[in-house]
Amino acid sequence: MPFALAIIRKLAAQGHEVLAADAWEVSPGSHSRYVAEHFVTPSPRDATEAFVADVERIAAERRVDLIVPAFEEVFYLSTRWDRLARVTKPFFSRFGTLLPLHDKESFQRFATGLGLPMARTVVARSDPELREALGRFERYFARAAFSRGGVALLTNAGPLAGRVAVADCHPTPTNPWLVQEFVEGETFCTYSTVHDGYVTAHCAYAIPRQWQHSTGIQFRSIDGAVTLEIVERIAAETAYTGQVSFDFIDSPDGPYLVECNPRATDGALLMSAPQLASGLLEPTGQCETVPAGEEIQLDLAVFGGMFDGGQIPGTFHDLLHIRGADRGWHDALPNLYSFLSLVRSERLRHAEHSELFVAMAGDISWDGEEITGMSEEDARVLAGARG
Predict the structure, then answer these.
(1) How far is CA 20 from CA 4, 33, 109, 131, 367, in A?
(2) Are residues 194 and 134 in the same domain?
(3) Whether residue 270 sits in one domain with residue 221
(4) Which residues contact 342 (CB under 8 A, 6 or more apart)?
(5) pLDDT digit string (tens) for 206-244?
């Protein structure tokens, strides 16, 4: 993930020794000049016990001070929180804290219970229920309770209208779909670091450019005061520790919560190295915030967007005037491995007949399945979330 590389660079720039681990040998971050040492682990999804054992061994042998997950591998690690905490500090919460935030159905109940603004929602656990739920709203927006990255969004409004067919959507009792009333407004996001329920760094940001109206490739920080209050309330309520991100709709009535991602996201790209290091490792006692107006983009993705329906004059303007995430780091090798990683992901996408982001995140994503080796307590939490 591009933001994983950004975290590596920024922590190293602040004087920290960074070790990187990934299940892919071609992971770009593992080949950064800012990494002291890198490791290839088994797949978090397909070989969970071997993956956790490797992380535990590396942390013990190298005397690692802190484990900072970069994506949904956090869910696999969280099922062994006590075990990992014996050798290092996990910068993430236990599974029982993460699940109700990650599961969109559980999060919808949690957020509305706190009185936070969310769109009217109907939950569907079967194909007939999905069709009935869609009929309740003139304009709707629907996605699976376990999903990410703008993948498989069912809607009849906005730029994604009609891109996913109802016939291709199949809710189940273990992965239901949320059907929500479409709220007019621009989407924006937040990224925060949290220690024991206290928010230590916060960034709110808009996404001026997306890849095929899904994954962001250009980011601009905005005023985060209103969203910080919401994040602080959720963090305190859950005694959360780790990285956490939220999606919002900027409606005429104020910000509406869409979903929570209890993990790192692209907001880390916008934080300065001192802000990110302070938020992750060295809390100052006050929350570090990113001021409005900061801009950054993924140059290669923005350039590639020209050949996927992007506007050429505007793209060249942005490439000349907006800071690229790689600029100034003098760290070229990850670009080569980004290309190799993309090739690998494309091959997987064709083999699996899936979308690119699904293939890229396949072995570090979690969609609500029972995790091999999870404790009886975590299994009960998961069963409870399934109803």
Answers:
(1) 10, 11, 36, 45, 24
(2) no
(3) yes
(4) none
(5) 998 876 555 788 999 999 999 999 999 999 999 999 999
3 assigned to some structural domain: no
Residue type, 217: I
- Residue of 275, 335, 280, 324 whose CA lies nearest to 18: 280
Residues 80 and 125 in one domain: no
E strands in the chain: 19-22, 37-40, 66-67, 89-90, 121-124, 140-144, 154-155, 177-181, 186-195, 198-211, 215-222, 242-251, 254-261, 288-289, 295-297
Given pLDDT bands bounded at 50, 70 and 90, which one contains residue 56?
Answer: very high
Quick one: 285 exposed, middle or buried, by C-beta within 10 A (0-12, 13-18, 19+)?
A: exposed
pLDDT over threshold 60, residue 309: no
How does the average pLDDT of the chain come out, rounded? 89
Rg (CA), the chain: 20
In one letter, which amino acid is 25?
E
Domain count, the chain: 3
Backbone angles phi, psi at 69, to 5 degrees: -65, 155
Range of the domain at 270: 184-329
Residue 330 DSSP label: -
Q: pLDDT digit string (tens) for 167-202?
A: 999 999 988 999 999 999 999 999 999 999 999 999
Instruction: Say if CB 18 and CB 282 are below 8 A apart.
Output: no
User: Is residue 237 situated within a structural domain?
Assistant: yes
Per-residue confidence (pLDDT) for residue 215, from 0 to 100? 73
Give the domain-ending residue among 182, 197, 226.
182
The pLDDT tens digits of the residues spanning 24-43 come to 898 999 999 999 999 999 99
pLDDT of residue 158: 85
**Residue 2 domain flag:** no
Domain-embedded: residue 104: no
Structure confidence at residue 241 (pLDDT): 98
Distance CA 259, CA 248 (A): 7
